[in-house]
Amino acid sequence: MIFTVAIDGPAAAGKGTISKEVAAHFGFAHLDTGLIYRATGARVLAGEDPLAAAQDLRPEDLQRDDLRTGEVAQAASKVAVMADVRAALVAFQKSFARREGGAVLDGRDIGTVICPEAEVKLFVTASDEVRGERRYQELFGKGQDVTREGVLSDLRLRDKRDSEREAAPMKAANDAVVIDTSEMTITEAVEAAVAAVGTVLR
Ligand code: DC
Q1: Which atom of ligand 1 is nearest to the CA of 80?
Q2: How far is the CA of 183 from the centre of ligand 1 (A)?
Q3: What are the pLDDT digits (tens) for 16-63?
């Protein structure tokens, strides 16, 4: 069975948790496409050329444990502006999306560019303040040296860059179901996403 769930939206809206839970619920494979950009960004921070890093990306690059920092997030957002870097990463994502057995991909351009033919498209969002607080708690909880103000302004900077870039800007596909998680618990958000997929799968 070929079945793709495309989940897009801004940073810290809950895409990651929702994607994992939806994939587990339906037995689909999951790809966090942000990790691909983070891994490329991390290699650029280490001095590599962005395109060379993207073209040479390896599975172990995605397993590095230093990809979830504010610094790597910004580096990811910066390399993600480059059309040649994005082009180098497209084929892998497209084939993952149409793999046998069902797939959930989360990112910024999955429903619009990577898999416009996805059977289900969700756009998961939340207010800046809610997303900032969630990301602050996440990073602070991991022992990172962060402030609420710093996390919120980093997030806004990244959203602006991600949505205003020319190549595959972040936006909801016309046929996406929008889930605003500002006032939802994570359980409610997952239930809403599972229900949206269930309607189409049935
Ligand atoms: O989802 P994330 O926060 O881990 O993504 C990090 C950055 O990668 C994000 O700011 C923009 C970029 N990105 C992208 O341009 N397209 C995607 N499909 C996923 C991420």
Answers
A1: 15
A2: 24
A3: 999 999 999 999 999 999 999 999 999 999 999 999 999 999 999 999
d(CA 54, CA 165): 18
Give the whole-angstrom CA distance, residue 101 versus residue 3. 7
Q: Tokens 């891994």 appear where? A: 39
- Cβ(39)–Cβ(137) under 8 Å? no
Model confidence over 123-154: pLDDT tens digits?
Answer: 999 999 999 999 999 999 999 999 999 999 99
Rounded distance from Cα 76 to ligand 1 centre (Å): 7
**Distance between CA 4 and CA 73 in Å, rounded?**
26
- What is this structure's pTM? 0.97
DSSP 109-145: SIIIII-TT-SEEEEEE--HHHHHHHHHHHHHHTT--
Read off the DSSP letter of residue 196: H
